[in-house]
Structures are given as structure tokens and as C-alpha cells.
From TrEMBL:
Lineage of the organism: Archaea, Methanobacteriati, Methanobacteriota, Thermococci, Thermococcales
Domain of life: Archaea
Name of the molecule in the record: 3-hydroxy-3-methylglutaryl coenzyme A reductase
GO biological process: coenzyme A metabolic process; isoprenoid biosynthetic process; sterol biosynthetic process
EC identifiers of the protein: 1.1.1.34
Pathway assigned in UniProt: Metabolic intermediate biosynthesis; (R)-mevalonate biosynthesis; (R)-mevalonate from acetyl-CoA: step 3/3
GO molecular function: hydroxymethylglutaryl-CoA reductase (NADPH) activity
Length: 408
């Protein structure tokens, strides 16, 4: 069948989108073009720009996307340099940001300038774990407690018997059980190296469930995720206990730099942060006691191939600002749930991998896990820059002016 015939049949619905590859001898690039042309024919529209891309469909279909018709292009800018004094990220970094929000890159860039002039950002990783929480239905609460105690006592056994069968990189480190009536939720905590690790911990958790069912014949494995993981939803669990990387970025900015570069004072920034980010967020019942973590996290996630839905948890966190005894500004951000990786998933897409390479974190680290930790520290530094700049703009009453000049 020629291409025109295929386009006609796809447009009419005779051939479904997911079946096109069967008629192109597995040529996924041709299948992509046929689907796009079928949509153009069906709706009488042009998808010319969606059809311009450098990504090879043969590399991403079946791994990163289904029913591909092209790409959506998002402008990418860069902020920096930002000096980071981290445990893994050391030196000056440029941060790629993919966004359509005018003024965002400029704002982060201004924050980077102020922080670098002040000597840089100090970053600290508090914990590193990826979680999955399967649900088991037990005869009663006592059986649920018995199973939970057995699992807690057999972490090493479960690693050997289940986890090591399906991954070389995943390590089961701990479990936090939660019992509700006869329901047992087992929140497993894994070490996942440089991968964000959701697929790794999901497959590993299923193997663990098989072992538990063999050990306890009256217990039924009901759901691979019982929603206490917690993945891609606003929640107190990750805000308090963390998921992915829990990371803090902090800096002391001399009064002179605050006044010269940010056009305000340490006192005003501290007061705006207290009344806006802390009191205002508390009144709103927010998990984000911050100005705009999501802006920076979202722009970096899109640029570097992270799971964009996990911006939800990445936006959790607290910004603190106070005046030091010397009259300077202390500012920090705490991110409890930054779920990121430098291998696997969308990081394999060539454009996203190039963005990771700007920061020197593309691929696996040596030893494993170091690239992802370095990346987490860079993100935290960028978030701190964004928070500092926005708080200063609000304190100086420059926010509307900046959006008029850069965002319209």
C-alpha cells in the first residue's frame, strides 16, 4: 500500500494510529509522518511545525512515546553562571531552562548573579530514596502487623530473593509499614543510582510481593501502588518524609549586594518571605511554602527529560529568609521531594541529553549515583536563585514592571 493510501485509511479510522507501524515495515519515522498527515487530512489543518524535529522516531517510539506525530518545541534559555559549593556540584554552572514564560530566565539569571557575587550557594543532600508502596489485603489487623514485622526483619533476604533478580542497580534499604484496618501498605525505600528509578522500584516491588504471598498464603497482593508512595500527587507524606532527593540550598548575601544588585534590603526580603511564603501559604493550606519552586523545577524538568508530572512533588518545599546579626541576608530553600535522574526515561532523548551535558551530568556517574546527586544540587541552587530574585522583585515592587517589559 502506498503512502497516500495509508494516510487515507488512517484518516478514515480503518487503520488505527497504533497499527501504522505494521504497514511501514517497522519504519517508525515513516509511521510518524503518516499519522501526522492523516490528522491534517481529517481536520483540514497544517501541522508543519510539529513535523520539524531532529529527534529520531526510531529511537523514542516504544521507549518514550506512542502514536508519535512529531514534537512540541519549547524555547530553551540558560541562566548563570551560578557558583555552587556542594558535596557533589562544585564550581560554576549554567542552567538550561525550557519555558514560554517571559521574565523567568531573566529572573533566575539575576538570582544567580547575586548568589555568585556573594560567594555561591551551599548545598546539602539530606536523604536519597525512591519509594513504592504496594497494598496487601490481610485477614485482619493482627496478620497485617505480623507481615509488616516479618518484612522489616527480612530486608536483606528480600533484596537477595527478589530485588537482585530484576535489577543490578536497585538496592532495598528500608520499609515503612502503614496499617489501616486489614489493609497493609508497605512503603519500600530503594537506592537507585543515577536513575530516577520509578520503573526499577516498581518491578522490584512486584517481585517482593511474590515472595510475601509465598510466605503468607492468607495474604493477598492487591495493588502495586497503594498511593502511599506517593507519586505525582500533592501530599504530606513526601513533604515530611521525602522522596527522591531531599536537598537544601542556602547562602548568606551581604547587605551591599542585596541593595546594589537586588534593589532592596535584607529586612524587606525577610518580611515579604515571612508574610507571603509562610503565613500566606499556611492560610492557603499549601504544601509549597515558597514563591515559585514549580517555575524553576518545571523549566529544568522539561529541558532535561525528567518526568514532568513529578513537578508536583518538586514544588513542595520551604523558603526561609532572615537577617543575620551582621545585617546581611540569610536565605535557604528546602526541597523534600526532588525526583530526578540522569539516566533512563526522557534523559535518553538527544536534545534533553544535550541539556544535561551543559551541566556536566549526562549519563551515569562514577561511582553510580553521583551524577544524579550533583544534578539535584544544581537544581536546588537554581531554585534558590529563582526564589531570591522573585522575593526581591516583590519587595522592591518591581514584579509587574518586569512582566510588562519581558512577559508581554
Amino acid at each position: 500500500m502506498n503512502m497516500e493510501g495509508l494516510v487515507e485509511k488512517v484518516a478514515s479510522g480503518e487503520i488505527k494510529f497504533h497499527q501504522v507501524e505494521k504497514y511501514t515495515n517497522g519504519d517508525k519515522k515513516l509511521a510518524t509522518e503518516i499519522r501526522r498527515k492523516a490528522l491534517e487530512k481529517k481536520f483540514g489543518i497544517s501541522l508543519e511545525n510539529i513535523g520539524h524535529y531532529s529527534i529520531d522516531p526510531n529511537q523514542v517510539i516504544g521507549r518514550n512515546i506512542e502514536n508519535m506525530i512529531g514534537v512540541v518545541q519549547i524555547p530553551m534559555g540558560v541562566a548563570g553562571p551560578l557558583k555552587i559549593n556542594g558535596e557533589y556540584a562544585k564550581g560554576e554552572f549554567y542552567i538550561p531552562l525550557a519555558t514560554t514564560e517571559g521574565a523567568l530566565v531573566a529572573s533566575v539569571n539575576r538570582g544567580c548573579s547575586a548568589l555568585t557575587a556573594a560567594g555561591g550557594v551551599k548545598t546539602t543532600i539530606i536523604s536519597d530514596k525512591m519509594t513504592r508502596a504496594p497494598l496487601l489485603k490481610c485477614p485482619d489487623a493482627r496478620k497485617a502487623r505480623e507481615v509488616a514485622e516479618w518484612v522489616k526483619a527480612n530486608i536483606g533476604y528480600l533484596q537477595e530473593k527478589a530485588v537482585s533478580k530484576v535489577t543490578r542497580h536497585g538496592k532495598l534499604r528500608d520499609v515503612k509499614p502503614f496499617i489501616v484496618g486489614n489493609n497493609l501498605y508497605l512503603r519500600f525505600e530503594f537506592e537507585t543510582g543515577d536513575a530516577m528509578g520509578m520503573n526499577m522500584v516498581t518491578i522490584s516491588s512486584e517481585e517482593i510481593m511474590k515472595v510475601i504471598e509465598e510466605e503468607f498464603s492468607d495474604v493477598k497482593y492487591l495493588a502495586l501502588s497503594g498511593n502511599l508512595c506517593v507519586d505525582k500527587k500533592p501530599n504530606a507524606m513526601n513533604f515530611i518524609n521525602g522522596r527522591g532527593k531531599t536537598v537544601i540550598a542556602e547562602a548568606i548575601i551581604p547587605r551591599e549586594i542585596v541593595e546594589k544588585k537586588l534593589k532592596t534590603t535584607p529586612e524587606l526580603i525577610a518580611e515579604v518571605n515571612y508574610r507571603k511564603n509562610l503565613v500566606g501559604s499556611a492560610q492557603a493550606g499549601s504544601y509549597g511554602f515558597n514563591a515559585h519552586f514549580a517555575n524553576i523545577v518545571g523549566a529544568i524538568f522539561l529541558a532535561t527529560g525528567q518526568d514532568e508530572a513529578q513537578i508536583t512533588e518538586g514544588a513542595h518545599g520551604i523558603t526561609l529568609a532572615e537577617v543575620t546579626p551582621e545585617g546581611d541576608l540569610y536565605i535557604s530553600i528546602t526541597m523534600p521531594s526532588l525526583e530526578i535522574g540522569t539516566v533512563g526515561g526522557g534523559t535518553r532523548v538527544p536534545t534533553q541529553r544535550e541539556a544535561l551535558s551543559i551541566m556536566g551530568v549526562a549519563g551515569g556517574g562514577d561511582p553510580p549515583g553521583t551524577n544524579a546527586k550533583k544534578f539535584a544540587e544544581i537544581i536546588a541552587g537554581a531554585v534558590l536563585a529563582g526564589e531570591l530574585s522573585l522575593l526581591a522583585a516583590i519587595a522592591a515592587k518591581h514584579l509587574a514592571k518586569a512582566h510588562k517589559e519581558l512577559g508581554r
